[in-house]
Structures are given as structure tokens and as C-alpha cells.
Amino acid sequence: MTGPSAPPSRFRRLQILGAWWHGPQGALVAVALAVALLFLRKPWALQTPQLYAEDGSIFLVGHETLGLQAWFTPYMGYLHLLPRAVAWFAGTFLDAGWWPACYVGAAAAGTVLVLLRFASPRFAVPGRSWLILSVGLVAQTGETVLSLTNLQWFTAFVFLQQAIFSPPAGLGQRVGDLVLVALAGLTGPFVLLFLPLLVWRVWRDRTADTWAVVAVAGLCAAVQAWFLWQSESAAPAGGAWRPGMLASALGGRLVTRPLFGFGLAIDFAAWAHAAIGGAVLAWLLFRTLRSGARTPVGVAVVAALVLTVAAAVLRCRPDRWDWDDLTFSDRYFFMPRVLVAWLIIWECGAVSRLAAWTARAACLAAVFLNARGHVQPAPPDYRWADHCDAIRRGVPAKIPTLPEGWTLDYPGRPGANP
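User: That's the sequence. What structure does it adopt?
Assistant: C-alpha cells below.
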């Protein structure tokens, strides 16, 4: 006869909790927390929806003046299918007073959808729940959050997902993959960056599904490349070549600011950003690429990091900056910053106790040192409802929108009566 079983030890309870956190339910909880953290960064965007930058001057005006032709009209040299489609929907079915809410709501829905895909069983990677949560925690100015104009910085993750996901399990997943790749591919230039990664997936797996994804992505890349080739847009001009500034900017954007917080990092000397950032990045790349447990996932993430950093450098040209405030063009470094966070999170489970505890300390420091600046101050409320009557009537107007100081120069609707 046996007695009653002993209650599980504290260690056993932690094991059970850990298994739950890394399982399907934990991944969904991580999505909910990441979404809450992202929206908490800009709560005023949901409470008082407003147009932001190109929301009005490009997408709203494009729909009003060009109609469906706007869908095929490039801006900055490439197509923006999702923002154009949202502007068309709002302009066709909703009163003008609801347009900012529609734009912000669409950006929120797109963000949630991308994060939910990370919770899919097909994203079977080490530390999945922590990786998802990091998207909501990683330091940023909030420029990419709840903004239709900047939704493309979230939809870019679709390509990384396709490079890592396990094969689709049925027709629904196959069709869903192709539709999302097409939508993301025609929304921003990121398909050009990630096409080599998708081709690598074909070379590795050689399945009909990977070939189908590459075919759709390749078609989108060809379209975007053609528009870019026809475009006269160029990288911003600047001063003389400064390799030290490039190293400082990358070290500051990818390492020192995320780990030490803006309040501390802004006072670092340029050489400190470069030295600390270079050392940490070199260590992470070495550790990730030599770890057989994370191959080929680690290779895909490292490749994505290199590709997105290279694109950010070519677009922003930090090598020509005279100074760096650690916030300029922050959206270009959002995805690379998330990927660096993933590399650090993976080190939390390293066999080496020194590496594991160093990575854990870095994660805790990043969370606590950035907590104070997580919620962004509310901008002015330009009271859209008081200004949108001109749009209802289709007459020219100058309407204040975000960011502060930006004006929507509404040209009026063709054929409208003043």
C-alpha cells in the first residue's frame, strides 16, 4: 500500500510552468502581451485616432484624386498595396469622420495578424514565446506602431516567417501563405531584401510549396524592382564619409540604446557605441552560427539581420551623418533591433552558464532601463472631426495632422462643387 503522492517540488512546478509558456497556450498569451505592450506605447493612438504623415498626403489624397489608379501608383519608388486598399475602403464606405479610426484600426489588425502567425505551430523555434514578447518590449520610438503608413515594417516579418515556417498542412495554409506573401510583397520593398532568403529555403527543402512561395515573391519583387528602376528617388545626401559614425550609429541603434535605455545611451561617446555594439554583435553572430541546435533557424535570422541592416544603411546613410540622436529614422532599425533581441534571448538557454546568465542579465536590464520611456507622450489632438467637412464636400483645404507640424494639403475632389 502506498501513501499519498508528494506535492510537486518547486523545481517541478517551474518545469510545468515553463512547458506551458513554451506551448501553444503560452504562445497565444505572449501574443496578447506583445499586442498590449505595443498599444500601450501609444494608447492615445487608439483613444484619439489621427492621420499620420503619408496617411493623408499620399494615401488619402491618392484615393480622392486617382481612385483605383492609386493602387498602381508608386510612392518613394515602390507600391503600397495595403495602405492604398485601406484608403480606398475608407473613402468608399465610410464617412470622412471615421477615416483616421479606420486607418489606425487597419494598422492594428495587420500587427495582430503578423504576431498571431508567430504563435502558429509552424513557427517551431527555441524560446518562441519569449521571441514573440520581445516584439512588444524592444526599444523604439513608436513610429511603427498603430500607423498605416508604417505598417510595412510589420508585414516585412511575413517573409522571415516563410523562411522559417514548417511546411503547410493543407490547402488553407498553402493559399494563406501565398496571399500574405503577395500582400506583403506589394506593400513596401522588403520582398527584394528577403527574396534570397526564400530562394535559400527552396534550395534547402526543394518542395512544391517553397517553389510556389518563391514564384509569388519573385513576381512581386520584379514589380517592385521595375518601379524602383523607373523612380528618381535616391538615398538622402549628406556630408563626408565617416566610418566611425557608421559604427557608432549601428552600435547605438542595435545594442547600446536597447540594452541601456535612451536616458543612459544618449550620453555615451561615439567610440563607446561602436566598441560595445561591435563586440556584442560579433559575439552574438559567432555564438548563433556555431550552434547546431538553432541551425537553420539561426542562419535565417542572422541572414535577415544582415540584409535589413544593409538596407537601412543604404537608405539612411548613417556613414554621412554629422551627429546621431538615437531616434532619427528609427523605423529603419526596428526589425534589426528585434532580431538582435532574438539572438540574445537564445543565449539565455546556452550550455555555458556564463553566456546564459550574461544574456539573462542583458534581457532584464533592457526591460527595466527602457520601462520609463515605454509610453510615448501624447501629441496634440488636431480634432479631425472639426476639419473633415471640407473632404466631405470635396473642396480644397489645409488640415493639420500628425506628426506635429505636418499639414494635409487636400486638393479637393475632381468634379466636386464648392
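The chain has a mean pLDDT of 92.
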